[in-house]
Structures are given as C-alpha cells and as structure tokens.
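Q: Given only this backbone (326 positions), what sequence would you predict?
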C-alpha cells in the first residue's frame, strides 16, 4: 500500500486529493497546523485520513511528520493562498508560501538520505507566477513576472523545487495550476463569493455583492479534476513541471452571467456594486494556460466545464444557505 503525506489538507485541493488517494488504496496522512485549528473538523470526517500536526515554518515539525508518515509521495499544498491578503501581510505570506516550500523540500531530502528519489515530491505552483504575462497562452517556459507578494513567494518555491531536483536528484515536480474552483472553495475567493451571494440574494438573505474589476479574465477549472493531474505527475518516471489549465478564459462578468442565470435572475446589474477596495494594487488581467504538455505526457484532460462548475457551486451554496436558515 503506497503512503502519501499532504500539507494543506484542509484546503479544497487537500480535501479532493485525500479522497482521490484513499479511493486508490493509499494510506494518507494530512498535515494540520495547530491543534486548535478550526478547519480540523473538516478533515476529521474523511474516513481513513490520518492527521499529523506541524507547521511549514518549523522544519523540526516537518521532519517529525515525514519520519512518522514514511511517505512514498509528498504533496505540498500548504500555503497562504489568498492573493489579496498577501498585500496585507507580505512577510507571513513569504514565510509560509515561499520558505515553507524550502523547509518541506529539506525535510524530504534529509529523510531520503542516500536515495534522493525515494520520495516523490509535488509542489503546488500557481499561474499567479506569470503575473504581468509575457506570452499568451502561458506555458512551462513562459517568463515569470509575479505581481503580488503571493506570486513572488510561489516563484521562490517553484524555483527551489527545480533546484532541489537538479542539485540533489530528487523526484520533485511542480504543477503550475491555473485557477481551479469548487463548492469547497473559500468564500473569500471571487467565484465562491459570487455563487454564495447569488444563493443568499435568491433566498432574500442579502441585497448586493461588492466586487472589484469585472473585466479581469481567468482560466477557471474544477479542483476535482486538477488534483488528478497532481497524482499523475508523481506517477511519471521522470519529474518535471506542468501547466494545468483548461485553455479557456472567462471574465468576472461571464461568471456573474452564469451564476445569476442559474438562479433565475437574467439581469444582475442591480445586485452587483463596484468597490475600489477590491481592486488589486497591480492587476493580473489575462491568464490562460497551454496545458498541451500535460495532455500529451500525463494523458490528463479537464472533465468539468466552466458553466457546469459554476452551476454546481450555486446549487451547493443554495443547499447550504437553506440548511443554515440565516
């Protein structure tokens, strides 16, 4: 039975990945920061998932976790992943999202000892690394030009993963994942913010939703599809970096069109207010990925389309809001 260790297991990707690996017969350990972490209850309900406590900023705790789990595969998904917050606390974002990768790589290297490829390592890189895009669509070789502290921290982790692979011979791969969403997405992210607001507006619990740049475009896919790509990367004989995307781009306006229409509201203009506070200091206007390498090498394809995903999220939020009754 193969064994996997997942950092960031309480996030949407960690939840989908842990379920995928358990279904494949893995023994799965999830790393959780702090014993009073309010998100722990989310993962306690997953049968078979074993929890370990540690912190990406504390190398000694990571060493203990790796030696306890004795994993064949490590998926480093842990990060402070909300881009807007990275402007408010750039230092903490850098420590966790950037230096945390170095700590996890080092803990893995020390555990592997004389066999540097004993453990296969996955690093969750991000399309935010492209930032001020230098090429459309973006591929693995596109110049990185991050435009947020989060993006900068992800670039550090990405290049550190490449360096550990090239310097130590580790089986370390990076998935450059474009935006991926689901009903498990945090409500601070724009897709879930919209679908949750649509549900509440439909039920008479909320009057408006405040947003920033409605013309910003993103390449949005379904998180459940994207975690399969992570697993496929670690099944390859040779480690490498892969863009994971849909190759389609949609604007916030299109997101609003689909979400409100699914709830029976054709004209959303009176329910949306523009708030300059939600504009980024340096906007990333167009992100669209070329995932041909993943298609050809991994045999990976996204299965859930944009509109299907947004409708799925609206339905989930309607169900949740009806259950809450508030």
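A: Predicted residues:
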């Amino acid at each position: 039975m193969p064994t996997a260790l997942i950092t960031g297991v309480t996030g949407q990707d960690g939840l989908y990945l842990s379920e995928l690996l358990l279904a494949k017969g893995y023994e799965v350990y999830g790393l959780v920061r702090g014993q009073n972490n309010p998100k722990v209850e989310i993962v306690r309900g997953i049968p078979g998932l074993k929890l370990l406590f540690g912190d990406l900023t504390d190398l000694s705790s990571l060493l203990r976790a790796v030696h306890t789990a004795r994993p064949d595969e490590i998926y480093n998904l842990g990060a402070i992943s909300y881009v807007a917050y990275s402007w408010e606390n750039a230092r903490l974002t850098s420590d966790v999202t950037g230096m945390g990768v170095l700590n996890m790589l080092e803990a893995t290297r020390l555990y592997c000892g004389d066999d540097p490829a004993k453990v296969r390592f996955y690093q969750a890189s991000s399309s935010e690394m492209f930032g001020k895009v230098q090429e459309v669509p973006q591929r693995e070789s596109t110049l990185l030009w991050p435009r947020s502290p989060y993006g900068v921290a992800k670039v550090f982790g990405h290049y550190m993963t490449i360096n550990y692979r090239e310097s130590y011979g580790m089986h370390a791969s990076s998935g450059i994942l474009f935006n991926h969403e689901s009903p498990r997405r945090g409500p601070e992210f724009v897709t879930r913010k919209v679908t949750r607001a649509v549900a509440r507006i439909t039920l008479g619990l909320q009057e408006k939703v405040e947003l920033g740049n409605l013309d910003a475009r993103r390449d949005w896919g379904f998180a459940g599809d994207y975690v399969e790509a992570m697993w496929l990367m670690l099944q390859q004989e040779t480690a490498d970096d892969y863009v994971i995307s849909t190759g389609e781009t949609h604007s916030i306006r299109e997101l609003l069109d689909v979400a409100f229409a699914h709830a029976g509201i054709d004209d959303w203009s009176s329910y949306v207010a523009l708030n300059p506070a939600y504009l980024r200091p340096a906007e990333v206007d167009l992100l669209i990925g070329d995932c041909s390498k993943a298609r050809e090498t991994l045999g990976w394809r996204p299965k859930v389309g944009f509109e299907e995903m947004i409708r799925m999220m609206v339905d989930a939020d309607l169900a949740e809001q009806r259950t809450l009754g508030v």
